[in-house]
Amino acid sequence: MRSRFAAPFARLALAAVAAVAVTATTTATATATADSRSTAVRACVTTDLTYKVSLKTQAGGYFLVTAKAKSGVTCQLEGVFPSASFGSSADTEVSPAEHAVGDGVTLTGSTAAYAGINPKTTDNDHGREFDHLHLAVAGDETNAVTLALPETATVDRPTATNWHADPADAVPFSG
Predict the structure, then answer these.
(1) How many CA atoms lie within 13 A of 51 on its CB side?
(2) Do residues 59 and 171 make contact, with C-beta atoms less than 8 angstroms apart?
(3) Is a pLDDT exceeding 50 seen at residue 34?
(4) DSSP assignment letter at 119
(5) C-alpha closest to that of 86 among 152, 143, 137
(6) Is residue 30 scored above 50 in pLDDT?
(7) Of the candidates 78, 84, 80, the residue with the CA atom closest to the CA atom of residue 44
(8) Alpha carbon of 17 to those of 3, 21, 30, 74, 140: distances in Å?
(9) Do the bridges between strand 83-85 and strand 128-136 make them parallel or antiparallel, or are there none, so unpaired?
């Protein structure tokens, strides 16, 4: 007699456990599906990008670096200043021209990011001349690229702006 009452109760318990398992599996599958369609864009590295350096006369003169993603690449460039130097000594490394981190820029297709580099922030006759800039995305310095400058620059305490989506925001004003 006990087996007659136990069987329906056991079937009911088994059905309840199965319902919980199906719900958990469905939730896990929905979560995994949502995660696989995530819109998060990976961070850019130096080799993801192409670079162009142009000379600008605004704010006493500076170099505007334009970065674009290579074909087929979509990445996020952090809103910090690039890792750059004009030579191999520490006094030719750029320091930040801005005090805060800016918005990142998602690069893909023709979208560009801009950073302004002021090679000389001092008001004196000191400095050394360079005709190349070593540049990397911050954190990826081992893959730095060397870029020819449009003209020779006298370098003394250089600064750089953060990467910006608008070139007007990449003017390294002194002061």
Answers:
(1) 26
(2) yes
(3) no
(4) S
(5) 152
(6) no
(7) 78
(8) 20, 6, 20, 45, 51
(9) antiparallel
The DSSP secondary structure of 95-161, one letter per residue, reads EESSSS-EEEEEE-TT-EEEEEEESB-SSSS--EEEEEEEEE-TT-GGG-EEEEEEEEEEEBS-EEP
CA angle 44, 64, 80 (to 5 degrees): 40
Task: Work out the widest C-alpha separation in the chain, in whole angstroms.
Answer: 106
- Token output for 133: 């800039």
How far apart, in whole angstroms, are the C-alpha atoms of residue 96 and residue 100? 9
- What is the tens place of the pLDDT at every residue in 117-151? 999 999 999 999 999 999 999 999 999 999 999 99
The pLDDT assigned to 20 comes to 41
pLDDT in tens, 37-94: 557 899 999 999 999 999 999 988 999 999 999 999 999 999 999 999 998 888 999 9
Residue type present at position 125: D
* H or E, element range at 7: helix 2-36
DSSP structural state of residue 122: S
Size of the chain, expressed as the number of residues it contains: 175
